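Sequence and structure are kept together here, with a separate record for every protein. An example record follows, reproduced without changes.
>
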Amino acid sequence: MDERDIEQLLNKVRTGRLSVAQATRDLRHLPFVDLQFAKVDHHRALRQGFAEVVYARGKTTQQVTRIVRELMRPKAKHNILITRANREIHRAVRRLTALAKYHARSEAISIRRNKTTTGRGSLLVISAGTSDIPVAEEAAVTAEIMCNRVTSVYDVGVAGIHRLLRHREQLEAANVIVCVAGMEGALPSVVGGLVRVPVIGVPTSTGYGASLGGMTALLTMLNSCASNVCVVNIDNGFGAGYLASLINRV
């Protein structure tokens, strides 16, 4: 149920087309439903513009499917995103809805019930290397399910900067850029110096020993001299895609 649904329901009560008891039944699952192991937040879309996202890792298949079933219950056709999921979970969710799509590289499941585009501009996702693609894909899937136009450019790291410059037109056309890099994590600074839009740096755990599981890339990005660069957590493609989507709505 979204803001428009609530407004329509209250108008029906005001005009006598719906009883208070019936309205109460419709509203009884707001603001959240307690499943004992999880409290499903049905007001999330009302407050933030997108339904609660399910982080699957650490949850059983049964827990994930119960949460998804509850998220699908309201009349509003919000898109649903499940992150860090395996194929077993996808098969179970697929039994709930044929719209469940598994994105193998990012280990995400999307249920797209609303295909409108609400993002105001184009959203560009860049990866420094091929090994960074899974995190970049998580960002892209997140931004797409949040109704943005997303373009991806992969393997354009600083070791071969000419590869990045080949895509200057896409860089300049983007409204916001997600830049994913492991190793030394230098790419967001380079991209930030080329464009006049926000650049969201995503450090990845890709790299040899001194990369420290992504800490080196994280510290490099935090110390960026490009003023338009902000940074999310290591391997957090979801957070970057979500933040980029919010920026793209403005």
Remarks:
- The mean pLDDT is 90.
- The first strand starts at residue 32 and ends at 34.
- Residues 3-15 form the longest helix (13 residues).
- The chain has two domains: 21-111, 122-249.
